[in-house]
Write a structure and sequence with these properties.
This protein is an alpha+beta fold. The protein is built from 15 helices and 22 strands. Helix 4 packs antiparallel against helix 5, helix 7 packs across helix 8 and helix 12 runs antiparallel to helix 13. The longest helix is centred in the middle third of the chain and has 19 residues.
Length: about 450
Amino acid sequence: MPLYLKRKSVKKLLKKVLVANRGEIAVRIIRACREMGIRTVAVYSEADKNALHTTLADEAICVGPAISRKSYLNMKAILEAACLTGADSIHPGFGFLSENAKFAKICEEVGIKLIGPTANLIEMLGNKSQAKHTMKLAGVPVVPGSEGVLTSKEEATQLAEQMKYPVMLKASAGGGGKGIRVVHSKNELEKAYDLVKQEAKLSFNDDSIYLEKVIQNPRHVEIQILADEFGNCIHLGERDCTIQRHNQKIIEETPSLVIDERVREKMGQVAVKVAKEIGYTNAGTIEFLVDNDKNFYFMEMNTRIQVEHPITEMVTGIDLVKEQIKIASGERLEYKQKDIQMIGHSIEARINAETPEKNFRPCPGTITGLHLPGGNGIRIDTAIYSGYTVPPTYDAMIAKIIAHGRTRQEAIAKLKSAVAELVVEGIDTNVEFILDILNDASFVTNEYDTSFIEKRRKP
């Protein structure tokens, strides 16, 4: 019998957290735990032996070779590590196992507290087509599309003709911009159908896909929620994540200036209402598309901490990772909705190890020199250091630069200054690409949509 199957009971007060992730989010979680007096365990692959999170944690244990499916996605190895080190809980961060219902279920069965929602909730909301159906039943506006997953190419073609092109094929188990294709004709759809199913199978081990009508020129706006295990739930405002490349977010900000207070309040109320109805717990994000008439449509729900969570922390003063841990420890939310105030404006840029002029080709390698910016209102979330070797195996993001100002204009000015000050020698980064966006007149005047980069920023 595997060692992890011998675990029995769940301890309410968390004392040792295993961080089942890597990079800046692992560092972020470890620091939050240290501030709370909670011991931490880092897991790492052979490629991450010298990674920063392994030195910051109280303990570190190797869970496999570089390839993710044999290390950071290796449930057995991670659960064995938790048992061997006496960890009573696991924080999955984002990506990897963070939205894996099977992993959450095993944690529940063996008595290890997963810092996140229950396995049933992850399963319900992790499948995008099923989540859409759940939201529709709860009265949330949804993007028109197929009722559940597609059963054939013929069904997809029929629906697309009824709804009128363009339409979008999406992986039901998708996330991170993978398994998505926009098609403008029957010929495109017939070719894309098999490609999306293949990508879905490769990325998520689930080839089920569904179809949605494309909302023309939308903004991508999401609502952050926190819910405890006693039925209390609040929202912490919205984040505008419209600046994307191939459905991958690049720049995020809060508040969104594309919606007014009436729409903001309505979106927040809808998010909280749904969370309460389904019994959601811990941190979560409900993502919407907003059209030109300020109508909003449910897109998906992420049952984990988001990459862009720091901008919400900057304007609310609430540490979302600490709140996750408190909720998982059985504590009630300290805040009521009336306590939440958004002060100023915050914006985040994702710094990637890539070469934009070569079609954003990843650029792993050793960092030979490094200068991180600072100053009033600047926050850097990263795990890199001088001498660190960025491995070729994982996501290209190496840092996030977050700026906070009294106004959007001030926040943009601070972010531009910080990004321009960043020095990363030895590898290529997207710094100049980010600065180009921040200086673009359409971005500065807030007159853009999700096609911004596609139209203006081709390499």
